[in-house]
Amino acid sequence: MTFINYAAREINCKIVYYGPGLCGKTTNLQYIYDRTNPAAKGKLISLATETDRTLFFDFLPLDLGTVRGFKTRFHLYTVPGQVFYDASRKLILKGVDGVVFVADSQEARMDANVESLMNLEKNLVDHGFDLQAIPYVLQLNKRDLPTAVSAEELYRQLNFKGEPTFEATAPTGQGVFDTLKAVAKQVLMELRKK
Amino acid sequence: MSDFILFDEEFHQIKDVIGRLKADAQAKVVFIVDKNGQQIAAHGDMESLDTTSLASLTAGNVAATDGLARLIGEKEFPVLFHEGERDNVYISIVGQRVILVVIFDERSSLGLVRLRVRKANSELERVFETIQRKVESEKTRRQEGYDSPFAEITDEDIDSLFRE
Q1: Which residues of chain A make contact with B67, given a CB cutoff of 8 A?
Q2: What is the pTM assigned to this prediction?
Q3: Residues B39, B27 contacting (CB under 8 angstroms)
Q4: In which domain, by residue range, is A57 found?
Q5: What is the mean pLDDT of residues B70-80?
Q6: CB B48 within 8 A of CB B114
Q7: Tell me, what's the pLDDT at B36?
Q8: Of A177, B20, B84, B157, which is the most buried if we count CB atoms within 10 A?
Q9: Of the spans A50-54, B29-33, B136-140, which averages the highest pLDDT?
Q10: pLDDT in tens, A106-148
Q11: A194, part of any domain
């Protein structure tokens, strides 16, 4: 649900990074935070456990610049990936404008990827959204690991609707901004239709 | 789901209501957030506050508490109160749609805040009903062929946002 503020000439959009536990959602946000000009970003908030596992969400506000006289602000959220945090995951999808699915390329995590993708689809439906229709990008993360499955195989198993798909290594930043750009672009394109 | 659109007229009405509430409740800061964590308006001494983070965390807090309410068979907990050593936060839900947050210290009291919030709440509810009606009629107008101000966004506009 985009928030268009005519009084402040601002468009606010919400993007959620989804995916199984330890797939690198928080690392994506951390990289974006580290590489963004201080004037264009707010604080990175992480509600995490003592062992740095996301407990509720991470949050990063970004100002991307001005489009047609409106400041575009993106609020990036991650969800907790661990299976048992489903209630929290569902809350964070409320009012989402675009989703990034961060897949873990390791063979051992294939089932977790598929389970998380199914969970995303179901939780979106519960909020009245359709994964077929919502702005959506797939990121194949952890490409640097020796146990990574080929990108073609991951694409075959996880690509849902021909969405833009990027190979990534989040700690070094490979693919991180490409992913963000692709989802932000789809969200702004959606605005044209409204 | 329809977007939330805030027009100048209602923005100023909201600013008036929360400005009055801040004075009447002797509060430090009053702000309004939508349930998705976007800040709608704020009034008071905000220089030392990160209002964007506050908005997101407040919405997360309310969402978690709403989830808790439903688990025990309640519709929602319409009021949340956090008491600190110096500052306190009083959170209430306006018309099931938006969140009103009042931050106050020892210069005020929970009783006074609660009383003033109740009055402001009903005024705000009316404003948000008007906004809802406007958003609906705007949607109808667009369906009838009026262009959205964003209809003209080009690929070039979007690409320029990401240029280094």
Answers
A1: 87-88, 91
A2: 0.91
A3: no
A4: 3-189
A5: 93
A6: no
A7: 87
A8: A177
A9: B29-33
A10: 999 999 999 999 999 999 999 999 999 999 999 999 999 999 9
A11: no
CA of B114 vs chain A CAs: smallest distance (Å): 27
pLDDT at site B155: 82
Q: Cβ of B156 under 8 Å from any chain A Cβ?
A: no
Q: pLDDT grade, residue B145 (50/70/90)?
A: low
Which residues of chain A neighbour B56 with C-beta distances below 8 Å?
A: 45, 59, 61, 75
From A4, A144, A160, select the one nearest A67 (Cα to Cα).
Answer: A4
Q: What residues in B contact A91, CB-CB < 8 Å?
A: 60, 63-64, 66-67
Please check whether residue A71 lies inside any domain of the structure. Answer: yes
Measured between CB atoms, does B12 come within 8 Å of chain A?
yes
Number of domains in chain A: 1
Has residue B142 got a pLDDT over 80?
no
CATH number at residue A167: 3.40.50.300
Minimum-distance CB partner of B158 among A42, A94, A188: A188
Residue A135 lies in a domain: yes
pLDDT at B146: 59
Q: Where are the domains of chain B?
A: 8-161
Express each pLDDT in A42-98 by its tens digit: 999 999 988 889 889 999 999 999 988 899 999 999 999 999 899 999 999 999 999
Q: Which of A83, A63, A81 is nearest to A11 (CA)?
A: A63
Question: Stretch B8-12: mean pLDDT, rounded?
Answer: 94
User: Is residue B1 within a helix (H) or strand (E), and if so which, with residue range?
Assistant: none
B8-161: CATH topology:
Beta-Lactamase (3.30.450)
Residues of B in Cβ contact (< 8 Å) with A88:
64, 67
* Cβ-Cβ contacts under 8 Å for A102 (sequence gap 6 or more): A17, A18, A19, A23, A24, A25, A28, A139, A141, A168, A170
CA nearest B158 in A: which residue? A185
Å from B53 to nearest chain A CA? 7
Q: For B63, name the nearest residue in chain A, comparing CA atoms only.
A: A91
CA distance B148 to chain A (A): 6
Strands (E), B35-162: 39-44, 79-83, 88-94, 98-104
Instruction: Tell me, yes or no, if B6 comes closer than 8 A to chain A by beta carbon.
Output: yes
Write down the ipTM of this complex. Answer: 0.82
What are the angstrom distances between the C-alpha of A28 and each of A17, A179, B85?
A: 9, 9, 36
Q: Decide if A69 is inside a domain.
A: yes
- The span from the CA of A5 to the CA of A192, in Å, is 16
